[in-house]
Amino acid sequence: MGDEAQLKGTVLVVDDQPLVARMVARLLRLRGIDCETHLRAFGLLNRIADLKPALVLLDVEMPGIDGSSLAALIRQDPALSGCRIVLHSGLPEAELARIASSCGADGYLPKGPAMVGLLRTVTQWLRDPSASRHAARSNL
User: Fold this and answer.
1) Rounded CA gap, 53 and 72, in Å?
2) Of these four, 4, 13, 86, 117, which has the most CB atoms within 10 Å of its CB?
């Protein structure tokens, strides 16, 4: 298992597209990362409270309530505010950066075929929970 054995915590992948959620979760699990999925905004705050994930990988564009509003709600709840939030979206990177900054997310990663940035960021934060809260940026 090597370096993956040092990883601490669970990643909660939140995406209303089941295929995307499964693909990201499978990729993380293949790297030895504990991962759960949640496919809608409804019930997310309760799921976070129960699961206590180290990191929430949160889609921005979801029906009902968008990811940036969910991130702001997570930050307002003292019981949930300790988890890291990384926005994950197909939006243009400049817009994604602006949204992440305005809603209190720790960072952002664009969706796309190159998943190296996602793996690198998730691995870094699970290894070192004290790493900078704004370390997640697109490196692609």
Assistant:
1) 17
2) 13
Phi, psi of 13 (to 5 degrees): -95, 120
Question: Which residues lie below 8 Å from residue 135, measured CB to CB, with a gap of 6+?
Answer: 106, 107, 121, 124, 125
Q: What is the per-residue burial (b if ≥16 Cβ within 10 Å, else e) of 5-19?
A: eebebbbbbbbbeee
DSSP string, 66-108: -HHHHHHHHHH-TTTTTSEEEEEESS-HHHHHHHHHHHT-SEE
Amino acid occupying residue 80: L
Of 129 and 37, more confident: 37
pTM of the model: 0.87
**Cα(71)–Cα(112) distance, integer angstroms:** 21
Q: Are 111 and 90 in contact (CB under 8 A)?
A: yes
